[in-house]
Design brief:
The complex is a heterodimer of chains A (946) and B (476).
Chain A (H helix, E strand, L loop, with lengths): L2 H16 L9 E4 L5 E2 L6 E5 L3 E3 L5 E5 L4 E3 L13 E9 L3 E13 L2 E11 L1 E6 L9 E4 L9 E8 L4 E5 L2 E6 L15 E2 L1 E3 L4 E3 L1 E10 L5 H10 L1 H4 L5 E10 L3 E20 L5 E17 L7 E10 L2 E4 L3 E4 L18 H13 L5 E5 L5 H9 L3 E6 L2 H13 L7 E5 L15 E3 L1 H4 L7 H6 L7 E7 L5 H11 L5 E4 L3 E7 L35 E7 L17 E3 L2 E5 L3 E6 L5 E6 L15 E3 L4 E5 L2 E5 L6 E6 L9 E9 L2 E8 L23 E11 L9 E9 L4 E3 L2 E7 L11 E2 L7 E7 L5 E6 L8 E7 L2 E8 L2 E7 L6 E8 L13 E2 L3 E4 L2 E4 L5 E2 L13 E3 L2 E5 L5 E5 L5 E4 L11 E3 L2 E4 L15 E6 H8 L1
Parallel strand pairs in A: 25-26, 25-28, 26-27, 28-29
Antiparallel strand pairs in A: 1-18, 2-3, 3-6, 4-5, 5-18, 6-15, 7-12, 7-18, 8-9, 8-15, 9-10, 10-11, 12-13, 13-14, 16-17, 19-20, 20-21, 20-22, 22-23, 22-24, 29-31, 30-31, 32-64, 33-34, 34-35, 35-36, 37-38, 38-39, 39-40, 41-42, 42-43, 43-44, 43-47, 44-46, 45-46, 46-48, 48-49, 50-51, 51-52, 52-53, ...
Chain B lengths: L13 H13 L24 E8 L13 E2 L4 E2 L13 E4 L2 E5 L5 E6 L5 E6 L9 E3 L2 E5 L5 E5 L5 E5 L7 E4 L2 E4 L8 E3 L2 E6 L7 E7 L11 E5 L9 E2 L3 E6 L2 E7 L5 E4 L9 E4 L4 E5 L10 E5 L5 E5 L4 E5 L2 E6 L2 E6 H30 L6 H25 L2 E6 L5 E4 L3 E5 L1 E8 L5 E17 L2 E6 L3 E7 L1
Antiparallel strand pairs in B: 1-35, 2-3, 4-5, 5-6, 6-7, 8-9, 9-10, 10-11, 12-13, 14-15, 15-16, 16-17, 18-19, 19-20, 20-21, 22-23, 23-24, 24-25, 26-27, 27-28, 28-29, 30-31, 31-32, 32-33, 33-34, 34-35
Helix pairs in contact in B: 2-3
Classes of the chains: A mainly beta (946), B mainly beta (476).
Chain lengths: 946, 476
């Protein structure tokens, strides 16, 4: 045997043992889920006919509408198809049942003339048909014994080997026949069609989704079919339905906690893997329960993970879809916990100060250093960012060396040298907590007034401790004198002298608690912002994270950020973060797959805020979260519609003691963000309005799981739901034609039988209902309330129509109309801003009392954002497409060059500041600064200078 | 910069002299970011694989100035947007003689390490992150900090020689938990002809400062020294210089060029939004910059005439590039490619000329269209010019593509450095060396993290990764 022959035998042996030769290669492997449909070889392109839509999640799939969609290969003849043996397999989701159903085939079945083959369905059973030259002269149809369920994925395979036919569903053989023998008997003329049962006499369209479709010129063995089905397990296994989808919260040290709620108690397993890594972590939550919480650990920094939840159900395992998270957005302390040192006065002092501050995260200033130990202890005992400051280079150097040795320098603690401790160049109000190591060790450093200046308004706390051990009388006296007249609360314990104070809210500070500022949709923060009426009156307090990677993009018009009591809330791509408004420190964040809503001009926001709670909509639920810690206080579920379609939570707003909500059809809110459609600016489908089928009220404390009242409706336009003076106002269409709607989104039919409605927020009782009598808001329609006035703005026919009513009676006070500025880039969908005197609708303002138009033009908007109000100015996207301010008193326009907001509303005012979390970085279009910023009034800094 | 005669043997035998000349010809330092002020990333240091690990400095993970870019531009359907502000993903090193220096964005310091052992020789703290690699010049180390100052320290001891800020009264802002100046130095310091160049800049609506000081004394004033104050700028990333010009990156804004002697702005390169922080200027007067991204472009490097600022051609999907020995080596799209620069350059200039004509014609046609004159004789003339330019550009593109000498697949595309006979490239979890002749992979080593920084000196290779690690490799 020569060496060449040996090599060949060796190769054959290798093929036999590895099974390489057995690996089947499909003749056609259709790449569905793309608008162009090539097969795997890229040689054949199916000709797409009819309406074609594709989806990419959970898998790429083509959607067949059952009326027009099908794929044809007009040049394919019988000679191009398998002759003797054939396997046809598909991953399919059925969307209907039909007497004659085909997914793929090449056949004629006309009376007694039956030839070719077909994989499809008959009524609610999958079927596989073949006609052969040695068979009975007609097609043999194999049918699965069990019906298929609509809306579920199946792997279905039909196999014919020249002697037997077999039908497999999800890898299991469900039917077989030996009726056919020999080569496939093809008709001379037929259509190789995907998505229809098509021959000379029939053309029945398939309705459903196709993920995979393969045709082999071989009969695949059962084990291969099983393997193919197994590979699709995540699709085929019954999906796990949640009562509330998972919420992931990062914890310090590379850990995370995941919570979820099931509809029925079950034991669960969370399976987590690093993207691109086969290794899978399994964390069991063994106890059968509805509410689950597990902890993940050992997470790597800046790494993407996916996870699924598997639950044991009565009908086998249930598997959730795959969720993802990325530790890039873990804003907690880095994963090396500082070590504990021998106890010292600083250990105790830090503990007391942190307890007094009542917060574990935020920014702490250590004012005056004596070695850096107090800064270290605050860092070790909390999750705070710590900044030390002193005016002595040797003290600064010593503290840095000490903190570096402990491994926290630059990571959690930093130290700055200031030339004058009594006037450090720190921005006013940056600190959640101010302590002094110098004072603790008996050195009366700097000035108490300067320490107080550094305190964050609305809750910042100064805790000055002096260790009594070794404190001489003179120093004690001097300290007492230093704090005199500073308004500090004095105390004394066995070890310490103690002085403390908490800073109150800034006079004139406002808030941004709902999509348009307040529950009345005034688009006004009512914030004085230190009297600022131009960008020159504000200075940057902080900048940094979250960055553009946190968000979806600049275009899909996401919900506005919220701010109250010194905390800013910002939504990203299925995530949210709470940020210290005065220092930019991220206090907590949540990764929530169910958190996404876009196209605000045609819907309503998915969150709102009050003094104690952040209310966040997550599909059917509202989560009540502690604003400062993110702790979940309660979960409320949308009241179901008796005998009605499945719903989800739509509107959420706060008034009095009530949390007002609405129910929309499941899937009605816009969530799509990809492509030009998701700009939601072009006139057409993007202008469809999301409407609710009911309004309801819960006790806002979350203590009762049942609503106080439910008021059913037909089509309550979400963008008009407005709260004020204990009332709920909205527009509702009672057009009978709307009953046919199945999407929860409505177009021009809304303008028939349209009413203005007012309910009592406490009881849901209808207080008045009047015909809306407004111009159709084909582009947008909004409603706003301020004390004594209710305003409706509808946009259509190239005009803005403004109407003003008495909120008590609904009687019209005045109406006005003017041309919109343009029909793109939100020039046709601006939301009005209201203050006590006027309603501002670009480019004019109308006197609220009389409707008289002020001709003095507002600063003209550029780009897609909408206006928001502060006491003396409107903030908008203006000059140079950057964020600008138009002074209401003077009409002067100022701007921050190269600073871009999102494409709707991302720059707000609240807590005495202008806050602009990053919203425009996804635009690959310009010179943008691309960062989150907080602006504070310069007048605050100037007060210090004086 | 060649090592000086301190490295020459003391015995001056004829053979020793010959060896010394060879050694000098092969030995090179890495005294500034990108090796030299042109940021060539080309060294005369000959590294002979296989290399073996010498030491590893395990620093804390760097804290870049800016978070990552958006995941996509969904409206324009562009995925994988390139960061235009990624100038500090790792601790980039410089190396001269037996020492290595780097700045830290995490603990706000500059460190000097022993190049042989990796042991720390000294640490100099500043008040803010040091984001760009220091520069060595005449025994001093120069660097800028987010604290708003530029420092000059003794290279051997870290002792401060001078520190300077253009701002009389600083105002700090909170930046990701640290207090930095409103005017941080994020350009590093470039020293040329005894002058230290740097910028203090952050917020476009605030003034930015471009400064040129006497490098020895830190003094302003005198010929060739200036402090220029301008608004509307965001100067960041290492500066690049030719003999007469200073090229300044601006993150998401397009780069700007200044007269090196006066600080006078001479104009910007490319379109607004064609930003990036990666720059290189060639001895032939070509400025290559990127990886900006603007509506549909793919995060490429762009080639300009440094003098006229004329756009020449784009290196599509290119991440990093070095030009050595008449060859362009570039990484990107999973490949390392070599291009014949001598042939490519004149063709790209010609291509750029026709590109300018095409743009001019298109602008004119747009103007005529607005005036409703797009069917007249003048419009026909401009359309013909555009068509002719397009035709010539298409033809040139084929000839430009034919300049590619070889291309090999590699996952090492994050960093690039050329030695006399090798091209080193850094990737995710590894670094590799390729032969310059044909691109054959000659050596590879694993590292933890993404290898963003490469440098070579005294026979050693230094690799900086995004985990905060610095690796030193030496010949076996």
């Amino acid at each position: 045997m020569n060496s060449k022959l040996l090599t060949r035998w060796g190769a054959l042996l290798w093929i036999a043992t590895t099974g390489f030769a057995a690996k089947p290669q499909p003749l056609h492997d259709w790449r569905l889920g793309r608008l162009l449909v090539p097969d795997a070889n890229g040689k054949h392109y199916a000709q797409v006919e009819g309406r074609v839509t594709v989806e990419t999640a959970p898998v790429r799939a083509m959607i067949f509408d059952g009326e027009t969609t099908r794929l044809e290969l007009p040049d394919t003849t019988a000679a191009d198809l398998p002759q003797r043996a054939i396997t046809v397999e598909m991953c399919v989701m059925m969307g209907h049942t039909a007497r004659w159903g085909g997914v793929v085939g090449f056949l004629q079945d006309n009376g007694k003339y039956e030839k070719g083959w077909l994989l499809g369905y008959e009524n609610d059973r999958f079927s596989f048909a073949v006609a052969s030259v040695g068979g009975p002269g007609r097609l043999t149809y194999l049918k699965s014994p069990k019906p298929f369920a609509l809306g579920r994925w199946y792997h279905v395979a039909g196999v014919y080997d020249g002697a037997a036919m077999r039908l497999y569903v999800n890898g299991r053989q469900v039917a077989q026949s030996a009726a056919q023998k020999g080569d496939i008997d093809y008709p001379p003329h037929a259509w190789y069609t995907i998505g229809a049962y098509r021959d000379d006499n029939e053309n029945y369209f398939f309705k459903g989704k196709l993920h995979q479709l393969r045709v082999y010129a071989a009969a695949l063995p059962q084990k291969v079919i099983e393997a193919h089905a197994r590979a699709l397990e995540s699709l085929l296994i019954q999906p796990l339905e949640f009562a509330a989808e998972p919420r992931l919260r990062f914890l310090p040290g590379g850990r995370a906690r995941v919570r979820w709620d099931l509809a029925a108690p079950a034991a669960c397993v969370l399976e987590c893997e690093r993207k691109g890594d086969a290794e899978r972590i399994r964390i069991e939550s063994k106890k059968p329960a509805a509410a689950h919480e597990v902890a993940l650990s050992g997470l790597r920094p800046k790494t993407a993970y996916t996870y699924r939840i598997r639950a044991s159900g009565l009908d086998g395992d249930l598997l959730s879809k795959a969720y993802s998270f990325d530790t890039t957005f873990d804003y907690t302390r880095p994963p090396t916990p500082p070590t504990r040192l021998a106890p010292a006065a600083e250990t105790d002092a830090a503990r007391r100060a942190i307890a007094a501050a009542g917060m574990r995260r935020g920014l702490c200033v250590v004012y005056g250093l004596e070695g850096g130990r107090l800064a270290y202890e605050v860092a070790r005992q909390s999750e705070m960012v710590v900044v030390g400051v002193d005016d002595s280079p040797p003290r600064v150097a010593a503290a840095r060396q000490f903190l570096r040795r402990q491994g926290v320098y630059g990571v959690q603690v930093s130290v700055r040298l200031a030339s004058d401790l009594a006037a450090v160049p720190m921005p006013t109000g940056l600190a959640d907590l101010v302590v002094s190591e110098a004072w603790l060790r008996g050195r009366r450093a700097g000035s108490v007034q300067e320490m107080q200046r550094l305190l964050r308004p609305d809750g910042g706390r100064l805790v000055l401790l002096a260790f009594k051990d070794g404190l001489d009388a003179a120093t004690r006296k001097a300290m007492g004198a230093a704090v005199a007249n500073a308004g500090l609360k004095a105390g004394e314990s066995a070890k310490y002298l103690e002085w403390s104070c908490a800073r109150g809210p800034l006079p004139g500070a406002g808030s941004w608690t709902h999509e348009y500022g307040d529950a009345g949709n005034s688009a006004n923060s009512w914030d004085d912002v230190g009297g600022a009426d131009g960008t020159d009156d504000l200075s940057v307090q902080w900048l940094g994270k979250p960055g553009a990677d946190f968000g979806i993009d600049r275009n899909p018009r996401m919900p506005a950020p919220l701010a109250n009591h010194g905390v800013l809330f910002h939504q990203g791509l299925n995530r949210l973060a709470a940020i210290g408004a005065w220092n930019g420190v991220i206090l907590w964040s949540l990764e929530m797959p169910a958190l996404r809503r876009v196209n605000m001009p045609h819907d309503c926001a998915n969150w709102c805020l009050d003094d104690d709670t952040l209310h966040v909509v997550a599909r059917d639920n509202v989560l009540l979260l502690d604003p400062r810690t993110g702790r979940e206080q309660a979960r409320l579920v949308v009241p179901p519609e008796p005998d009605g379609p499945a719903g989800e939570w739509g509107y959420v707003g706060r008034t009095g003691k009530w949390l007002i909500g609405s129910r929309v059809r499941r899937g009605a809110p816009f969530t799509q963000y990809w492509g030009g459609f998701a700009w939601y600016d072009k006139i057409g489908k993007a202008q469809m309005k999301v409407c609710s089928r009911a309004l309801f009220a819960f006790d806002a404390s979350g203590t009762s799981p049942t609503p106080a009242w439910v008021a059913p409706g037909q089509a309550i336009i979400n963008s008009t739901i407005t709260l004020g003076a204990g009332r709920v106002f909205y527009l509702e269409s009672r057009n009978p034609a709307l009953k046919e709607n199945t999407t929860g989104r409505f177009g021009d039919e809304l303008w028939t039988d349209l009413d203005r409605v007012c309910l009592d927020a406490a009881t849901g009782k209808e207080l008045w209902r009047r015909p809306a009598d407004i111009a159709p808001g084909k582009i947008v329609v909004y409603m706003s309330w301020v004390p004594g006035r209710l305003v409706v703005m509808s946009s259509g026919d190239k005009s803005y129509h403004v109407y003003c009513y008495d909120p008590k009676t609904g009687e019209r006070r005045w109406a006005a109309k003017h041309a919109w500025t343009r029909d793109n880039h939100s020039g046709h969908m601006q939301h009005p801003v209201l203050d006590r005197k006027a309603v501002y609708q670009e480019p004019y303002a109308y006197d609220l009392a009389t409707g008289k138009r002020w001709e003095r033009g507002m600063g003209r908007h550029e780009g897609c954002a909408t206006y928001v109000g502060v006491r003396n100015a409107l903030i908008y996207r203006g000059r140079g497409r950057s964020i600008a301010m138009w002074s209401i008193p003077s009409g002067k326009v100022t701007n921050w060059a190269y600073l871009r907001p999102s494409c709707w509303l991302s720059t707000i005012a609240g807590s005495g500041m202008v806050l602009s979390p990053e919203g425009g970085g996804g635009c690959s279009c310009g010179n943008w600064l691309e960062t989150s910023l907080g602006f504070a009034p310069k007048s605050l800094q100037e007060r210090r200078a004086k | 910069m060649m090592r000086t005669k301190r490295n020459l043997p003391r015995v001056w035998s004829p053979l020793g002299a010959l060896l010394a000349v060879c050694a000098a010809a092969q030995a090179d330092d890495w005294p500034t970011f990108g090796h030299d002020n042109r940021r060539s990333r080309v060294t005369r240091e000959r590294l002979a694989p296989p290399l073996t690990p010498a030491w590893k400095y395990a620093g804390p993970r760097p804290r870049p100035a800016w978070p990552g870019p958006a995941k996509w531009d969904a409206y324009a359907r562009i995925k994988d947007l390139a960061s235009m502000r990624d100038f500090d993903p790792a601790y980039f090193v410089i190396a001269v003689g037996d020492k290595v220096w780097f700045g830290s964005s995490t603990d706000d310091s500059v460190r000097c390490l022993d190049a042989a052992t990796g042991n720390t020789v000294w640490t100099k703290f500043t008040g803010g992150p040091v984001r760009v690699a220091p520069t060595w010049w005449k025994g001093n180390i120069y660097f800028g900090s987010d604290d708003g100052k530029v420092y000059c320290v003794d290279a051997a001891t870290g002792e401060e020689r001078w520190a300077w800020s253009p701002v009389k009264k600083d105002q700090w802002v909170v930046n990701n938990g640290k207090l930095i100046s409103t005017w941080p130095c994020r350009t590093g310091v470039l020293v040329q002809d005894g002058v230290a160049y740097f910028a203090m800049s952050l917020l476009p609506w605030e003034p930015s400062y471009l400064c040129a000081l006497d490098a020895a004394t830190g003094r302003t004033g005198g010929a060739g020294r200036f402090v220029v104050e301008r608004t509307g700028m965001a100067m960041q990333g290492a500066l690049t210089a030719s003999a007469a010009r200073l090229f300044v990156s601006q993150g998401r804004q397009n780069p700007i060029v200044f007269d090196l002697r006066t600080g006078k702005p001479l104009g910007k390169f490319g379109k607004g939004g064609n930003g990036g922080v990666w720059g290189l200027v060639t001895p032939e007067g070509v400025f290559i910059h990127g990886r900006g991204q603007n509506h549909g472009s793919d995060g490429e490097l762009r080639e300009f005439d440094a003098e006229s600022r004329l756009r020449l051609i784009r290196f599509r999907k290119a991440r990093r590039l070095a030009i050595a020995g008449g060859m362009v080596y570039l990484t990107g799209a999973g490949k390392l490619t070599a291009i014949d620069w001598a042939r490519y350059l004149p063709l790209s200039r010609e291509y750029g000329g026709h590109g300018a004509k095409l743009r001019a014609a298109q602008a004119k046609l747009k103007q005529l269209r607005k005036q409703g004159k797009d069917k007249g004789e003048e419009a026909t003339k401009w359309r013909a010019q555009a068509a002719e330019a397009r035709k010539r550009m298409d033809a040139l593109l084929k000839r430009l593509n034919a300049c590619t000498l070889w291309s090999v697949r590699t996952d090492c595309v994050r960093s690039l450095m050329a030695t006399p006979d090798l091209v080193f490239a850094g990737g995710d979890g590894r670094v590799a060396a390729f032969g310059r002749e044909a691109g054959r992979e000659r050596w590879t080593a694993t590292v933890a993290g993404k290898a963003y920084g490469l440098a070579a000196a005294a026979g050693r290779l230094f690799v900086s990764t995004d985990t905060g690690a610095i690796y030193a490799f030496r010949p076996q």
